[in-house]
Design a protein that fits this description.
- By secondary structure, the chain is α/β, with parallel strands linked by helices.
- It has four domains: 34 residues; 141 residues, Periplasmic binding protein-like II (D-Maltodextrin-Binding Protein, domain 2); 91 residues, Periplasmic binding protein-like II (D-Maltodextrin-Binding Protein, domain 2); 233 residues, MetI-like (MetI-like fold, Orthogonal Bundle), CATH 1.10.3720.
- It contains 17 helices and 15 strands.
- Strand 10, helix 4 and strand 11 form a beta-alpha-beta unit.
- The protein is globular and about 95 Å long.
- The structure holds arginine.
- The site of arginine has 13 residues, from loops.
């Protein structure tokens, strides 16, 4: 009886499991059918690229691309849900099919069609050079030799910049940051889509900038979708309709004040099919191998940044920690305010403040002041870690019993000697574990300085992905390198701790 009951329960369990699987499968195919039928498409966009996509003061999405997408969606009979994401993340997101399409002024290029498909061309554009109005040296592409060039990561401007002999390329996450760096004097020129620079100069705070010479490239924007996506057909249909019925011309007129140029019906760069199975595995391996030299050079920069920041952080943090314990009240208050400020604000904001904010402030007050990236990164990282280290040092010292100080002083030691011979050696053992944690955090936090175009390990990875669109392979390798470094670090701290523990040292000596 009992056996039969058990069997029935088991069968029921399998049934329920099967039903759940079926439900999941059917909901997947339902989503696909919904897309094909044209219900709601999730469309990625990066609204920092006026006049193509940007946000109004009240946060509403607007721009040429947005108007066009809305118009073509309504004529093809589907709805659009926009999802903000960085430009460099769009192709990986399309590959992973987390979004159905993107509108991002994205040019149809031979490299991109290897991994995603594009709609028919919808805008004719090209890359141009922007520089400061007072710069007389830069007059054409050849004069960019050996200059510092700012670009947005993963764009056609970044690709073009690679061909400049001797140039030092600084990559930023979005286009406004490149132009801000140009205004601040951190870069000599920027390569970006010409329309975007001109729009910025006309409408924004970019009057100190100018556009040089002819277009460096001719490119056509398309709407990208995942390969083989059923939404591509609907998008193309919608585009064809708005191009024919005059809606496209209206939108063009609204944003650019002229009639649109003739657009080709098909791009000269054809969509391609994807590789599968074994060949993909081989390519993955060869991509990882090929990326290793670049990642190693990034690792060296990461280590250099960590070492510099940790040394400065320990010096600063120890001083602040001691001030918090022993100085006069106003100083103590300042030290506390420092700790609260740097612990209470995000490191990313601090990096932006130091690299972009300080030079901009100086320029507005009439000084010329630029900060080099290494200095900005090290300053931000060490100021931040000093705040945490100060607390670690303070807590470590405070945890030593007061009786120890009294005993040392009864023996006639001065307060400096008391600290040096009695308190600090004991405090160090308690400080070490949290200090090790802080060291590991700092090592990982160095990846944040990628935002100022610093080519450390993570940024190197991003740059490689921006070229080959193999995000999983590359980021996995990057993660492994970080893991290797942090494991090494915790091992070193564990050894140090052991060497400070008299009992363990004794027992290991006996063993040997
Ligand atoms: N047209 C350039 C490209 O395709 C730049 C596009 C950048 N778009 C953006 N939303 N930030 O690479």
């Amino acid at each position: 009886m009992c056996d039969r009951l058990r069997k029935v329960i088991a069968v029921k369990r399998w049934l329920v499991l099967g039903l759940i699987c079926l439900q999941l499968l059917s909901s997947c195919s339902f989503t696909n059918r919904a897309i094909a039928a044209g219900k709601t498409l999730t469309v990625a966009t990066e609204p920092t690229f006026p006049p193509f996509e940007f946000q109004s003061a009240n946060g509403e999405l607007q721009g040429f691309d947005i108007d066009l997408m809305n118009a073509l969606a309504s004529s093809a009979g589907f709805k659009v849900k926009y999802q903000n994401m960085p430009f460099a993340g769009m192709i990986p997101a399309l590959q992973a099919q987390t979004v159905d399409a993107a509108v991002a002024a994205m040019a149809i290029t031979a490299e991109r069609v290897k991994t995603i498909s594009f709609s028919r061309p919808y805008f004719k554009s090209g890359v141009a050079i922007a520089t400061r109005t007072d710069n007389k040296n830069i007059t054409n592409f050849d004069s960019l030799k050996n200059k510092i060039i700012g670009v947005q990561i993963g764009t056609t401007g970044a690709l073009k910049a690679k061909g400049i002999p001797g140039a030092e390329i600084r990559t930023f996450n979005d286009s406004p940051l490149t132009l801000q760096a140009l205004l601040n004097g951190n870069v000599d020129a920027v390569l970006n889509d010409r329309v975007v620079i001109l729009y910025g100069i006309k409408s924004g705070n970019l009057r100190k900038l100018k556009v040089i010479g002819d277009l460096l490239t001719e490119e056509f924007y398309g709407i990208p979708t995942p390969k083989g996506s059923p939404s591509l057909h609907a998008i193309n249909q919608g585009l064809a309709t708005v191009l024919k019925n005059g809606t496209y011309a209206q939108i063009y007129q609204k944003w650019f004040g002229t009639q649109p140029p003739q657009l080709p019906e098909k791009s000269s760069i054809e969509n391609q099919t994807t590789e599968k199975g074994v060949s993909r595995l081989f390519t993955s391996l060869s991509i990882i191998l090929k990326s290793i030299p670049a990642l190693l050079s990034g690792t060296l920069v990461t280590l250099e940044l960590t070492a510099l920041s940790v040394v400065l952080g320990i010096i600063g943090g120890s001083l602040i920690g001691i001030v918090r314990l022993q100085a006069a009240p106003p100083l103590r208050f300042c030290a506390r305010a420092y700790v609260e400020f740097f612990r209470g604000t995000p490191l990313l904001v601090q990096i932006f403040m130091i690299y972009f904010g300080l030079p901009a402030l100086a320029q507005n007050s009439g000084f010329t002041f630029t900060l080099n990236r290494l200095a900005a990164a090290v300053i931000a990282l060490s100021l931040n870690s000093a705040a945490y280290i100060a607390e670690i040092v303070r807590a470590g010292i405070q945890s030593i019993d007061r009786g120890q100080t009294e005993a040392a002083q009864a023996l006639g030691l001065s307060s400096v000697q008391t600290m040096r011979y009695a308190i600090f050696p004991q405090a160090l053992r308690r400080i070490l574990p949290p200090l090790g944690n802080q060291f590991i955090s700092l090592l990982k936090d160095t990846s944040l300085v990628a935002v100022i175009g610093f080519e450390e390990l993570f940024r190197k990875g991003q740059l490689i992905v921006a070229e080959n669109y193999r995000s999983f392979e590359i980021y996995f390798t990057v993660a492994l390198v970080y893991l290797f470094l942090t494991l090494l670090c915790s091992q070193a701290f564990a050894c140090w701790e052991r060497s400070l523990n008299p009992e363990e040292e004794e027992s290991s000596r006996k063993k040997s």
